[in-house]
């Protein structure tokens, strides 16, 4: 096989890069390691964070590149390259217009979804930067309909983000007729909507992903890409090409890479299992400089034995009123309602005396009243009928002291923490960790109390009391080969390796340690994929 551009990986980054390269005149081949396409993108909420996007104006929401750059750079801590941030922000609207014009992708703003640090300068508390696709009829994909991976974390794929429990304790039920119409039409939402639409864009151009084809080695001569070696179902073969776009996802599922690079514990990842850092290793072998290696898109995760994945992303129940999180000393240690990525910072705090991570292990604590109202991780009102007490896998006790003993925490420590929490809640504030002060906390809290401090501050009074361990997890790693603004991989001398690109979670993320807003990973992934595809197809 002899092509101009080889794209490795079929997540949001890879599919976008393949379409863009083709539209700029390249002959494109697309390889996927797994037997199914879509990667973690297909498992995701499918939200895409694009500041100053063309859909905001239609809703009367103002934005500008300057505001977005100010916002990102205000959280840089020296890790965000200003040119990369500027390029991301300035190219975002163009990428949106390109995919909407050239493919079945169409976006709408997720209603009012606030940026994740809404009090930072340049933030948009009122939302607009977070986009998602309407549900997509999978019949359009023909034989590819059953070849897209399905998320164990979103069992109901007929919905859009605005219709899910993501930030609603009791979801607004989808009109039954509309739900039936979507089921009959095999319409899938969230990440599946994004992947289905991008995949359709590839298939329309004759770019057929070749599955069970794992890229294993780059062929480089005189500092230039000459091909890539693929392990396919019928053996190993080499594709001749002058450009390779790595879109192989993060290194979450490679224990050695995790140990070598991440700044603190990653107990569990919810990314697809095939993301084992292949692109990173290939790039390292040909001399790539690395960047942002310590970072991941952090996410608290709880183990839920009753679900198919055995674990679930953990956001709502730590934000709703009447729950707190404590470490092994029985102390609260952070604002429980903070955005999920921010938890990485709380989990990685070290206790200098004992040389251990101060806040691991940790548990979320709540009581029967909380459980009866909100359930726990997926056990929302519609599935909670007739359920009066928590299931056996949730640690329970009739007293706070009894719960503490079961967790190995000193009784009086946990009792004092709960008493202090309740006293502060009665005063309507959290002087210890400022929970409820950010607009974000009040938006993600109980939807019936949206906007009020009471949406997230509530007492833990009568028993029985419950605890579930919360793990340090991630939805993907975000370090990898360092690139220039066209996503060209740089070598250790900071010169481009000609013809080699990295996009999505395999690249050194231009976002540093931040997560700008809902869609904060897929936004940059698609923007730099768009730039890589165009550059690879048109460079001399
Ligand atoms: C439940 C959940 C919800 C999420 N919601 C959102 C959201 O709403 N918005 C957002 O921005 N982010 C979200 N994320 C994170 C987001 O899904 C990822 O950050 C994003 O999908 C990464 O895209 P990618 O294209 O880089 O990688 P992926 O989508 O993971 O794709 C990488 C692909 O490369 C393939 N591959 C690996 N190695 C090779 C190889 N050697 N050869 C060929 N192919 C290879 C993999 O099999 C995989 O298919 C969510 C994640 C989860 C789990």
Would you mind describing this structure in some detail?
The protein is α+β, with helices and mostly antiparallel strands. The protein has 16 helices and 24 strands. The protein has helices spanning 12-23, 39-43, 54-58, 65-73, 82-102, 176-184, 190-204, 255-261, 278-285, 316-319, 343-347, 368-374, 400-407, 411-427, 439-444, 522-538; strands at 5-8, 28-31, 48-49, 108-109, 130-132, 136-137, 187-188, 214-221, 224-232, 235-240, 243-246, 268-269, 290-291, 296-303, 311-313, 324-327, 350-351, 356-357, 362-367, 395-397, 465-477, 480-481, 488-490, 496-502. The strands form seven sheets. Strands 12, 14, 15, 16, 19, 20 and 21 form a seven-stranded mixed sheet that branches. Helix 1 (12-23) packs parallel to helix 16 (522-538) and helix 13 (400-407) crosses helix 14. Bound molecules: flavin-adenine dinucleotide (FAD). Flavin-adenine dinucleotide binds at residues 8-14, 31-34, 39-41, 43-47, 151, 153, 214-215, 247-249, 270-272, 274-275, 278, 297, 313, 475-476, 504-505, 518-522, 525.
Structure classification: alpha+beta
Distance between the termini: 21 Å
The molecules bound to the chains, other than polymers, are:
flavin-adenine dinucleotide
Average of the residue pLDDT scores: 94
What best-fitting shape do the alpha-carbon axes yield? globular
Poorly predicted sequence stretches spanning 5 or more consecutive residues: 380-386
Main sheet makeup: 7 strands, mixed
The number of helical segments is 16
Question: What is the strand tally?
Answer: 24
Residues in helix, %: 25-40%
Strand residues, percent = 15-25%
Give Rg in angstroms.
23 Å
